[in-house]
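Batch job 17 of 40 flagged for manual review because the log was empty.
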Amino acid sequence: MKNTFKLYFFFLLLFNNFSLLANDHLANDHIDKKIFNIINGVYEIVSWFDGKKLHKYPTVSGRWTFYEGQVISIIHNRINPDNYKSSVRWGKGEIKDKKFKYTYTESLNIKGNEKFSTFNTKLLFEGIRNFDVFLNNNEIKMVSENKNQVWTINEKGMVYNDKEWGEDKIFVERKWKRLTPIK
């Protein structure tokens, strides 16, 4: 009788632990879906602070899109009229286990002015960028592993901060308005 009770108790504990794991997995899936719905959309740049000066359209313009796992970034920087900088990048991203991961797989970068310009296809970064995602109601905050990049995204738009952006490794803050509603 004691052995039967022990066996019954063992299976009860085992089943209970599996059901707790399944519930955690379902909860994470629900959170990931909510994060996905918040980030999924099209954004248009409103302003760009380069650590010294705030720039707005038409000096800076662009779009950033995350749609069903595809990432597209278009940025036009006309701050210096003798050396405009534009980039078009695209790649892929995913949300899994409360993390956002993305990479650009293609890039076209143009520098110059109307008289003379150069271009290259150098990627902004190699590999995949990983962000921890923190959900607070209908807003997410995404923080990179090295803590240099932070995104805050909600129904109104997105704010992106980078402590070491671009070739010059300067601080930037870009504010984007959301063009598509949250699902």
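Reviewer: the log was empty due to a logging misconfiguration, but the result itself is present. Confidence is low (pLDDT under 50) at residues 9-14, 18-22. Unflagging and moving on to job 18.
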